[in-house]
Write a structure and sequence with these properties.
The complex is a heterodimer of chains A (about 400) and B (about 180).
Chain A lengths: L12 E4 L7 H7 L5 E4 L2 H5 L3 H9 L7 E3 L8 H13 L4 E6 L1 H16 L9 E2 L9 E5 L11 E6 L4 E6 L7 E4 L9 H20 L5 H23 L4 H21 L3 H13 L3 H26 L1 H12 L5 H20 L5 H4 L7 H9 L13 H12 L1
Parallel strand pairs in A: 1-9, 2-3, 2-4, 4-6, 5-8, 6-9
Antiparallel strand pairs in A: 7-8
Helix pairs in contact in A: 4-5, 6-7, 6-8, 6-10, 7-8, 7-11, 7-12, 9-10, 9-14, 10-12, 10-15, 11-12, 14-15
Chain B lengths: L1 H34 L1 H7 L7 E6 L5 E8 L2 E4 L10 E5 L2 H8 L5 H6 L3 E4 L2 H18 L2 H7 L9 H24 L1
Parallel strand pairs in B: 1-4
Antiparallel strand pairs in B: 1-2, 2-3, 4-5
Helix pairs in contact in B: 1-2, 1-3, 1-7, 2-5, 5-6
The chains are: A alpha/beta (about 400), B alpha+beta (about 180).
Chain lengths: ~400, ~180
């Protein structure tokens, strides 16, 4: 499965650890930015997560010029246009995204408009359209899972045309990602579990799919180790800032891994399930991961076996015969899912989600076959294969 | 000294090979859409008049086909009647040669960032499946296995030989028609 050629790119400055937020003013000043705008959502504001960001800036004499806190879960071209208008009228010169995937993607799209001009974000859709750096842009993630702070992609919906517009460019990457444990301390157990499983899936697919490479492997294995050693600690003691930081770093590292080596069938099925049944992405990842690994098993036996060291520790790795390590890795992931089910009822099967009917499985399989991620799955997936995986994941 | 003389000739030969393979593949795509129901089923969901291009960046060889409806393709050579809907672009002729000489699978070329997709990614996935199906038909199994991610298990020898013969016959006829025109 080794590639004789690969590309790896991540120019994002990662600022991680205790009091990381307090580095924002210095970093902004370094980019000659003095009038930042915050882009976030109502949930983040209600959880009180903006206060530490604002006070960190104000203490250094840097005022947040304006705050947009109404980003919806599925952001649209109209929202992007509105925020760009506010940015311009307030004469801002930089953007700080505080939130999860939607707030970050929205801020990336806003940055395109305010840097390149115009009100119609759809003009910039596709890959390679942007040709120069955008305005200074920082990301403060408030979930530990999506990895959006280190991915060069944004997806914005166009409700009038009923399509999702993808934007891909290395210029979308933020100048800095600020990983501060304070931002995830109050994340509810269910979301903590689902987003961590999202990160685990990013790392596992990055390590086992076709575009794996030595650099993304290093990030992926480190991310898997952090999730497998810290997730249950966080579930037991949610206020453990050290363990929270481990999960947040795992998410960023998994994001760096998968944005350089792509993902596979778990994501293809997850994207299709999200589109048709509106299930949260992290939950889909958690449900599908072991079933897809079982499906891919014979093509990924080597790398999957290696992951046992990071999933279950050196003792379990040493005690397991080499020929059984791949299966043991899947078992370790299943045990983690069982523990999460015990903690917060995170579903392990599609049936347990209670939001999908068995009659939808064929539509999910058909849609998954056209998903871009399927190209990088190590095994060629037919419609019958996708249906079989879904059937196993059903109950 | 000899090596310095041979190298430009080898590069020219590589360019010509890629150009020839694009011409064969374009005609073969039209032919396979006329003989194989699986390809027709895949292509049916493409919009009517959909224009697909495969090319070498920046202005190298290319093939252009159009979806005429009912899963049927028409080969347009290297000139498009309208703006292209989906373009798969090799970054360099060397990368196109790797794929078209079956040294690198199409899926591996994507994974290795040899190619860019300009257009709807779901259509690109569909077109890749069609290209894989074509290669499974027209290449000997040993070579086809090097070109596609997984050789189709349900493709038996009589079906392969019969379909390949019909595709090659159509490709040859198309070449003759082009020369006559």
């Amino acid at each position: 499965m080794k590639n004789s050629y690969y590309e790896f790119f991540c120019p994002v400055k990662v600022i991680a650890g205790k009091a990381a937020l307090e580095h924002i003013p210095y970093e902004l000043t370094g980019l000659a930015a003095k009038r930042p705008m915050i882009v976030t959502d109502k949930g983040v504001r209600a959880a009180g997560l903006l206060e530490p960001v604002i006070s960190a800036c104000e203490e250094s004499g840097l005022d947040i010029v304006t705050i947009y806190d109404d980003v919806p879960p599925d952001s649209s071209v109209a929202v992007v246009r509105d925020i760009a208008g506010i940015y311009r009228s307030a004469k801002c010169d930089s953007i700080i995204a505080v939130g999860g995937g939607s707030a970050i993607d929205t801020a990336k799209a806003v940055n395109i408009l305010v840097s390149e001009g115009g009100d119609d974000i759809s003009v910039y859709v596709g890959a390679g359209v942007l040709k120069r750096p955008l305005k200074p842009f920082f990301v403060v993630p408030t979930t530990a899972g999506t990895g959006s702070e280190v991915t060069a992609v944004a997806v914005i919906s166009d409700p009038q045309k009923s399509v999702k517009l993808p934007f891909t460019s290395s210029f979308l990457l933020p100048n800095a990602a600020i990983i501060d444990p304070r931002m995830t301390l109050t994340l509810p157990p269910h979301i903590t579990a689902a987003t961590a499983m999202d990160a685990l899936t990013h790392a596992t697919e990055a390590f086992t799919c076709m575009a794996k490479n030595p650099l993304s492997d290093a990030y992926a294995t480190s991310a898997i180790k952090k999730v497998s050693t810290s997730l249950l600690t966080v579930m037991n003691t949610p206020k453990d800032a050290d363990a929270r930081l481990e999960l947040a770093q795992a998410s960023t590292m998994a994001g760096i891994a998968f944005s350089n080596s792509m993902v596979g069938l778990v994501h293809a099925l997850g994207h299709a399930t999200g589109a048709l049944c509106h299930l949260p992405h992290g939950l889909c990842m958690s449900v599908y991961l072991p079933y897809v690994l079982e499906y891919n098993l014979e093509t990924i036996r080597g790398p999957l076996g290696e992951l046992l060291l990071y999933l279950d520790g050196p003792d379990a790795y040493a005690a397991t015969p080499a020929a059984r390590r791949a299966e043991a890795s899947i078992s370790a992931i299943r045990r983690l899912r069982d523990a999460l089910y015990k903690h917060c009822k995170l579903p392990r099967t599609l049936k347990e989600t209670g939001k999908i009917s068995e009659s939808q499985l064929d539509s999910i399989a058909a849609l998954a076959l056209d998903d871009g991620s399927i190209m990088f799955n190590p095994k060629e997936v037919t419609l019958a294969d996708a249906k079989a995986v879904l059937k196993r994941a059903w109950a | 000294m000899l090596a310095r003389r041979i190298k430009p000739m080898a590069l020219q030969a590589r360019r010509l090979y890629v150009e020839l393979m694009f011409q064969v593949m374009g005609r073969a795509l039209q032919a396979v859409s006329e003989v194989d129901s699986d390809v027709q089923a895949e292509a049916q969901s493409l919009p009517l008049g959909f224009l697909f291009e495969m090319m070498v960046m920046p202005n190298g060889s290319k093939l252009i086909i159009e979806h005429l409806g009912d899963g049927r393709f028409e080969y347009h050579g290297d000139s498009a009647p309208r703006p292209i809907d989906l373009s798969i672009q090799f970054k360099h002729v060397a990368h196109a040669f790797l794929v078209l000489s079956f040294q690198e699978k199409t899926s591996v070329a994507f994974a290795n960032d040899r190619m860019l997709v300009d257009g709807d990614i779901s259509y690109a996935i569909r077109m890749t499946r069609i290209l894989n199906r074509l290669e499974a038909f027209i290449l000997p199994r040993l070579i086809a296995s090097r070109a596609v991610k997984e050789y189709p298990a349900n493709l038996n020898l009589p079906e392969k030989v019969l379909s390949a013969a019909r595709i090659y016959l159509k490709v040859a006829n198309h070449f003759v028609d082009t020369v006559r025109a």
